[in-house]
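Why does residue order matter? Because the sequence determines the fold. Keep that principle in mind as you read this record.
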Amino acid sequence: MTERIVTTDGVDLCIEAFGDPADPTVLLIAGGAQSMVWWETGFCRLLAGAGRHVVRYDHRDTGRSSNSLPGRPSYTAGELVTDPLRILDALRVGRAHLVGLSMGGAIAQRLALDHPDRVLTLCLASTSPAVPAGRPRDLPPPIPRLRAVLADPAPAPDWSDRDAVVAYRVEAERPYAGSRGFDEPRCRLLAAQEVDRTRDMAALLTNHFVLDDGPLTVARLEEIAAPTLVLHGTTDPLFPIEHGRALAAEIPGAQLLPLPSVGHQQPPPDLWPLVVSAIDGHTGRA
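Structure:
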């Protein structure tokens, strides 16, 4: 396990690798306002133990990667999307398996469409179609409980008060739990790790959500050629499971693995054996 900064195009991106670099590379792409720590070390080690070179990284404005002023990101959404390519170039990896969650899943979809020569397989977790469809999808919105929280967010903490920021980060995750409940001790541990290694938590929790999406693409999900596995919680409050079903229906040959009672989150530890086995089998067929 090694953590280091790679600098490319004037941007610092913090990465951490697990396993043998000679094994096939699996790049884990976190969600919006998430640093690499939410892909937990135990999960990364378990996947590496299956014979994969596992790489996780901090998005811009998260963790130890380059940061901007809160509310003023110094990069575009397009640059955030292509950061995985910068990482693969720095590692001298031509093609990789991409595992993307939420915003990371949207990034993975765009890379599979725009740079198919760099993508071996896709695993899309807790995400939604990121490109328009030929006909309306009619997908359900976030559930009412989450919509209420998004419409009336909690006031920002004193960013100089570590304990207050950790508590704020924990509460920001709570509404995304599924019907299995909210694992507060685990979330608090991860939130503390994130706060302690992030340059600016105000920027982390703000900047990804004020980016301009850029021009609309004419690409369609049915153009994705990479073999695709969809992982989706059956009680995801942000993207109800119909979003995962839409991905599996529109991407040719895609398979859907529902995660029982899981919300909008990385797979919880008790499901790691199931998820790692699925990713191992999926990436091993490529």
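The mean pLDDT is 96.
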